[in-house]
């Protein structure tokens, strides 16, 4: 695969470090939140406009192997079958009109019955249920959006739900995002072109949609909160990478095994001398002579790094795993200086004072620290790549960028 990107590389100078400081993603975890002891394992998810739900769902599916089940998809697929003998459904608006005329066509118990049938296809599965529809006519259905206690009692008699995750944007922050637009003097507003909605109209519409979602999600939030099975994640920072990172930490604590290694630190060396005196056990480093884990040590940099990523991800489904990768005997040379126009958001620290113990917590056994200094590059996935100080900065960037994009899939 290609190693491309779209955003600027950021230099982590002291000034930039403050500007690009990781946001603090707050999370509240109910006392009864735990991984289910028996399969299938089912987690419900709630997320509305601006919650970055799509990105977060993708991360959960790719990282942990969840099967995504969508209530909206179930309705759009199964409701036409239910009514096919009495009416013809050709488009989504036909379903909307049908439900508006007769709400009894769409009831929560019926939806959960079809959800149960999906789960029964693999009773040993790991399921993520996107329980909140996005279509407004579904969110306004009083027979669908209601206190789910009775219907969930029937559903959970056969398939208990481990917990629910609410991707929450506090109401005051939604309003706050709109206020700066409204605070302008009227003379500063440009009259919108014919047929084009103004920013104020867009903001108002977004605010109303967010409010509709909040009201629709409330019964589900209350349901899981009453049983102390609610995980509330403040996603108002709008940075899906850091929101996913916080969820990764929680799922790791709950013993959900990831399909790939998370939060890895990869120390690169170009000859054996650069690792001389390094106590691998003290730093918890796994030694990887790259030429021994690839088919062709002289293959392209991209192919070599792809093999390295597969090796890392197959090593052990754990978090905070660290590797010392020896590049000697491969086509990747420290003297390589070719520039690339491929870009991505990376945090780079090329200053002095970067020691191994700044990124890896050494073991408790007293040992001499490895006092060589490194250049550091960190991706938004919290993968850290360390390089000898005399490595060309562009090579550091290219290796870290390529690895991050391969690991992201």
Roughly how many Å apart are the termini?
9 Å
- Poorly predicted sequence stretches spanning 5 or more consecutive residues: 4-20, 175-190
**Mind summarizing the main beta sheet?**
7 strands, mixed
What integer is the average pLDDT?
83
Strand elements, count: 13
Look at the helices and sheets and give the structural class. alpha/beta
Strand content: 15-25%
What does the radius of gyration come to? 25 Å
Across the major sheet, the strand order is 1-11-12-13-8-10-9
Helix content: 25-40%
Q: What oligomerization state is this entry in?
A: single chain
How many distinct helices?
A: 13
Name the shape in a single word. elongated
Q: Give the H and E element order.
A: EHEEHEHHHEHHEHHEHEHEHEEEEH
Your description of this structure?
Helix 8 (171-182) runs antiparallel to helix 9 (199-226) and helix 12 packs across helix 13. The longest helix is centred in the middle third of the chain and has 28 residues, at 199-226. The relative contact order is 0.15. This protein has 409 residues and is an alpha/beta fold. It is built from 13 helices and 13 strands. The strands form two sheets. Strands 1-11-12-13-8-10-9 form a seven-stranded mixed sheet. It starts with 9 loop residues before the first strand and ends with a helix.
């Amino acid at each position: 695969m290609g190693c491309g990107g779209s955003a600027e590389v950021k230099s982590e100078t002291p000034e930039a470090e403050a500007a690009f400081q990781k946001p603090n993603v707050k999370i509240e975890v109910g006392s009864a939140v735990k991984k289910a002891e028996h399969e299938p394992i089912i987690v419900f998810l709630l997320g509305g406009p601006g919650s970055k739900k799509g990105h977060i769902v993708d991360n959960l599916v790719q990282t942990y192997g969840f099967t995504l089940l969508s209530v909206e998809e179930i309705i759009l697929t199964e409701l036409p079958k239910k009514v096919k003998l009495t009416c013809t459904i050709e488009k989504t608006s036909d379903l909307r009109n049908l439900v508006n005329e007769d709400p009894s066509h769409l009831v929560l118990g019926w939806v959960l019955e079809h959800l149960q049938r999906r789960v029964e296809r693999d009773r040993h599965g790991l399921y993520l249920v996107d329980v909140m529809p996005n279509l407004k006519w579904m969110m306004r259905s009083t027979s669908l959006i209601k206190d789910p206690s009775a219907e969930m009692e029937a559903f959970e008699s056969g398939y208990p739900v481990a917990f629910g995750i609410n991707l929450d944007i506090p109401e005051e922050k939604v309003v706050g995002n709109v206020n700066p637009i409204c605070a302008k003097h009227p003379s500063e507003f440009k009259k919108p072109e014919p047929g084009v909605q103004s920013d104020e109209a867009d903001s108002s519409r977004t605010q109303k949609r967010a409010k509709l979602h909040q009201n629709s999600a409330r019964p589900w939030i209350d349901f899981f909160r009453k049983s102390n099975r609610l995980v509330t994640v403040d996603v108002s920072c709008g940075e899906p990478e850091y929101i996913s990172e916080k969820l990764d930490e929680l799922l790791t604590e709950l013993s959900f095994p990831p399909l790939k290694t998370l939060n890895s630190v990869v120390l690169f060396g170009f000859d054996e001398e650069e690792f001389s005196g390094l106590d691998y056990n003290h730093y918890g480093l796994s030694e990887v002579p790259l030429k021994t884990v690839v088919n062709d040590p002289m293959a392209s940099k991209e192919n070599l790094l792809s093999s390295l990523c597969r090796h890392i991800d197959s090593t052990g489904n754990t978090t905070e795993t660290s590797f010392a990768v020896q590049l000697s005997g491969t086509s990747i040379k420290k003297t390589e200086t070719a520039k690339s126009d491929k870009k991505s958001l990376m945090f780079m620290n090329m200053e002095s004072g970067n020691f191994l113990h700044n990124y890896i917590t050494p073991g408790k056994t007293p040992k001499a620290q490895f006092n060589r200094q490194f250049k550091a590059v960190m991706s938004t996935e919290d993968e850290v790549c360390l390089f000898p100080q005399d490595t060309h900065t562009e090579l550091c960037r290219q290796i870290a960028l390529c690895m991050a994009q391969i690991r992201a899939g």
